[in-house]
Specification:
This protein has one domain: Alpha-Beta Complex (Spore Coat Polysaccharide Biosynthesis Protein SpsA, Chain A). The radius of gyration is 17 Å and the shape is globular. It contains nine helices and twelve strands. By secondary structure, the protein is an alpha/beta fold. A hairpin with a 5-residue loop joins strand 7 and strand 8. The strands form two sheets. Strands 2, 3, 4, 5, 6, 7, 8, 9, 10 and 12 form a ten-stranded mixed sheet that branches. A two-stranded antiparallel ribbon has the order 1-11.
Length: 266
């Protein structure tokens, strides 16, 4: 979906609906949580929403769970890939199908509070921000709160994002009227971080809501739970794709690691 050596593709798309928020949910063996996740979207106070589910060849009963929602909710669509491809490919498929001006990302085990999208769209309409994000709180595999709200800044730019873990994927809404259309890099880890950097290039900014409107589920088997690998990936993205001096990237990654530690443990 993107040329070799490029993290993201950007072009102007004049065919999206200015009112619609396209909610993108990758699915892979999500039977345990997918119903709760979908319910949290359907309960949003902002009603002009489409939900795009792309299944990365689940081997459990995810498809059967989703089928009950497809029968009742015409704003939900479901697509299944022919072969397992990873989160980047899955999200790119959904982005290509999205009709909305706004793209909201949601992992299949995370939850939204009812006013999340309404509050984000209201804030985004006040200025030209590429991204809007919210604070999150963490829950465990049994929906128990691990730790309360992680504070976020009101504004974030490219330089700040190099050193921060502030942007949680399930808290993100992207305004394609500001960014143009885009795709995510096809990697097994770090594609979200690389995408936010790309979208914040050229002076674009992100705005934040310092209210926990997302419940992020921290699972012991999560791919992203390998913190060392994540930090190595951040360094690689900064040096190889953002063309940042290795010494500067090392300093950025030290700051990134410290901020990640504070976010998860302090």
């Amino acid at each position: 979906m993107h040329s070799k050596g490029r993290l993201c593709n950007l072009h102007v798309n004049n065919y999206f609906d200015n009112a619609i928020v396209s909610v993108i949910i990758p699915v892979y063996n999500s039977e345990k949580y997918i119903a709760k996740t979908l319910d949290s979207v359907l309960l949003q106070t902002y009603k002009c929403i489409e939900i795009i589910l792309v299944d990365d060849c689940s081997t459990d009963n995810s498809q059967q769970k989703i089928a009950t929602y497809l029968q009742k909710h015409p704003n939900i669509t479901y697509h299944r890939l022919a072969t397992n491809a990873g989160a980047g490919v899955v999200r790119n498929k959904a982005i290509a199908l999205a009709k909305g001006r706004y793209i909201a990302f949601l992992d299949s085990d995370d939850l939204w509070y009812p006013q999340k999208i309404e509050k984000q769209i209201a804030l985004m309409q006040q200025g030209e921000n590429a991204i809007c994000y919210t604070a999150i709180e963490m829950i465990d595999e049994n929906d128990q709160l691990i730790k309360g709200k992680r504070d976020v800044l009101e504004k974030l730019d490219y330089k700040s994002q190099l050193r921060n873990t502030m942007l949680a994927t399930s808290a993100i809404v992207v305004d394609r009227l500001v960014t143009g259309d885009f795709t995510m890099p096809v990697t097994r880890i770090g594609e979200d971080y690389a995408t936010w950097l790309f979208l914040l290039r050229n002076g674009r900014q992100a705005c934040g809501i310092n209210e926990a409107l997302v419940q992020y589920r921290r699972c012991s088997q999560s791919l992203s739970s390998n913190k060392l690998k994540s930090i190595q990936t951040v360094w690689h993205i900064q040096v190889k794709h953002e063309r940042i001096n290795p010494f500067c990237a090392t300093y950025n990654v030290i700051c990134y690691a410290y901020n990640a530690f504070k976010k998860h443990y302090i």
